[in-house]
Amino acid sequence: MPELPEVETIRRQLAPIAEGRAIEAAEVNDDRWVLPHTVDEFENLLAGRRILKLGRRGKYFVLALDGGSALVMHLRMTGNLLFLPDDAEPPSAHLRGQLWLSGDQGRAAGSLAFVDPRRFGTAEVIATQEALNEYLDARLGPEPFDASFDGPSLHQHTRGRKSPVKAVLLDQRVVAGVGNIYADEALYRAGIAPHKRAARLTRAQCELLAETIRDALAAGIDAKGASIDDFRDAYGVKGSFQDQFLVHRREGLDCPGCGAAVVKTRVAGRGTYFCRACQKN
Ligand SMILES: [Zn+2]
Predict the structure, then answer these.
(1) Would residue 19 show up in a list of annotated catalytic residues for this protein?
(2) 3 is a catalytic site residue
């Protein structure tokens, strides 16, 4: 499942391709992709609109459009967003929809193509900036790289929480964009056991964890994301962060810190990897 670094990798590639261009037409191949819109409604809302900015909030792409509306897309389990030049071979299967972009000086005509084998990905048009803020604020807490996310804010979110710390990190309203990979990697870097009760974290641990969350996410962005299943970047190329995992998906392999075997367990319903010796706190 793509997390913040995977979505950010695609955003950085597509922003220079898409920003400033008009959507000539939107074409929906799968009506489930655009629910609660109808296909006609969705296509009409986007036709002729100009993409002012291709942004990101948590794991959402946010395309600001002229006229004040926004297109919000989420890749969910297996979605990918690609740029397909007009002369490129379109993917033969799992194409849920395309936004056709006109060519302009120096930029070839083509489409932003949403490909999604498991069909959980979504695309929704939000009418106004105010409605967009409401939509995102209802779902997402602070961005991990914003000043509003820090040790004290994380500490506050963990008070009274009986759930394991990993479950709290996966809660998008605590910090936006962290998923299963980066939660495991951040907890390892902080020396904190994933099943530790969140309410028992000290202030100092929350301070450290806020830092290691940013470190793990930044390393993921630098490696252009992790491709453990379907993730491909906007050009269809795999990321490389999976080659740098410290514990995630490394069951039975040596912990890079102490050499003990990495253990797999289940926390918050998710496959979870950690080192018993290095994550005692
Ligand atoms: Zn270890």
Answers:
(1) no
(2) yes
CATH for 151-274 (1.10.287.1700, 3.90.320.10, 3.40.50.300, 1.10.8.50): 1.10.8.50
> What tokens appear for 43 in the block?
């296509």
Q: Kindly compute the dihedral angle of the four CA atoms of residues 59, 57, 8, 187, in this order, to the nearest 10 degrees.
A: -60
**pTM of the predicted protein model:** 0.96
- Catalytic site residue 238? no
- 270 catalytic residue (yes or no): yes
Q: pLDDT by residue for the chain (281 residues), tens digit each?
A: 899 999 999 999 999 999 999 999 999 999 999 999 999 999 999 999 999 999 999 999 999 999 999 999 999 999 999 999 988 887 778 999 999 998 887 888 999 999 999 999 999 999 999 999 999 999 999 999 999 999 999 999 999 999 999 999 999 999 999 999 999 999 999 999 999 999 999 999 999 999 999 999 999 999 999 998 778 898 889 999 999 999 999 999 999 999 999 999 999 999 999 999 999 98
CA trace torsion 17, 19, 24, 28 (10° rounding)? 80
Q: Which amino acid is at 196?
A: K
Catalytic residue selected from 2, 5, 142, 164: 2
- Rounded Cα distance, 70 and 40, in Å: 17
Distance 190 CA to ligand 1 centre (A): 12
Q: Which CATH superfamily is domain 4-139 in?
A: MutM-like, N-terminal (3.20.190.10)
Domains of the chain by residue range? 4-139, 151-274
Gap between the Cα atoms of 268 and 165, Å rounded: 9
* Amino acid making up residue 127: A
Centroid of ligand 1 to alpha carbon of 276 (angstroms): 7
Ligand 1 centroid from CA 181, angstroms: 17
What's the gap in Å between 272 CA and the centre of ligand 1? Answer: 15
Which residue in the list 3, 8, 43, 124 is annotated as catalytic?
A: 3
Which residue of the set 59, 96, 196, 232 is catalytic? 59
